[in-house]
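TA notes, week 10

Several of you asked for a full example with nothing omitted. So below is the full record: structure tokens for the whole chain, then the designed sequence directly under it. When grading your own attempts, check the secondary structure regions first.
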């Protein structure tokens, strides 16, 4: 049976001489794998560039319950990027976010709230001119709400150490490896209370921004077993420096 759904491309890998297998996070079915045959041939129905990371698609797909790899009947771009492809800062943020999502999303379940958050975030990145160098930090923090480990913002003069494992601010630093300093905790607290609407006024110094990224990546690592070796973080740092 055929179904219509929106989809967000996460990544693809080559399969055989001319085919690819694409991981797509779909609105209707959650995370799914699709085989797309013959994309490297001149007469291909679909070209590989249609499945670049975080491309937003309108899809008509098959969904067989006993099959791990599905087929695509039709695929069309639902939002054409206006600025991302021509802006190295935005393109680097997009690459980073795609890696974050690939390391974070594992369950093959429908989740409309998570889908809408990612879909709208990509469009916002394309449309915004505000403080792109902070976008990925806000995105990662907001994403934790949908992944189930959004931290409690109880930072105060008393609770000044952020516990990365427990996701709360505490009075004492019990196990150094799981905590961040009071100064860094203050910045982490500010990020927790930040939304995309705050991008216009959000300002972190270069070194603090770098430290924030390191801390939030560590936070993810302690809560997601699959979250390891974020290669694009170094690229992102280089671009913004």
């Amino acid at each position: 049976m055929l179904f219509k759904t929106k989809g967000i491309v996460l990544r693809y890998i080559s399969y055989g001489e001319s085919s690819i297998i694409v991981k797509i996070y779909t609105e209707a079915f959650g995370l799914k794998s699709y085989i797309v045959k013959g994309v490297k041939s001149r007469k291909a129905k679909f070209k590989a560039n249609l499945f670049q990371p975080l491309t937003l698609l309108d899809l008509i797909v098959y969904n067989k319950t006993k099959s791990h790899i599905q087929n695509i009947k039709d695929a069309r771009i639902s939002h054409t990027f206006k600025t991302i492809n021509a802006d190295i800062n935005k393109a680097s943020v997009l690459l980073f976010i795609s890696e974050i999502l690939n390391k974070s999303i594992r369950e093959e379940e429908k989740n409309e709230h998570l889908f809408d958050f990612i879909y709208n975030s990509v469009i916002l990145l394309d449309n915004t001119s505000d403080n792109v160098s902070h976008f990925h930090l806000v995105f990662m923090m907001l994403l934790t709400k949908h992944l189930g480990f959004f931290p409690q913002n109880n930072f105060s003069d008393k609770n000044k150490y952020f516990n990365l494992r427990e996701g709360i601010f505490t009075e004492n630093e019990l196990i150094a490896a799981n905590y961040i300093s009071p100064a860094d905790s203050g910045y982490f607290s500010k990020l927790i209370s930040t939304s995309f609407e705050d991008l216009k006024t959000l300002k972190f110094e270069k070194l603090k921004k770098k430290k924030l990224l390191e801390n939030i990546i560590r936070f993810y690592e302690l809560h997601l077993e699959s979250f390891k070796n974020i290669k694009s973080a170094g690229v992102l740092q280089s671009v913004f420096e």
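The first strand starts at residue 2 and ends at 15. Use that as a sanity check on your answer.
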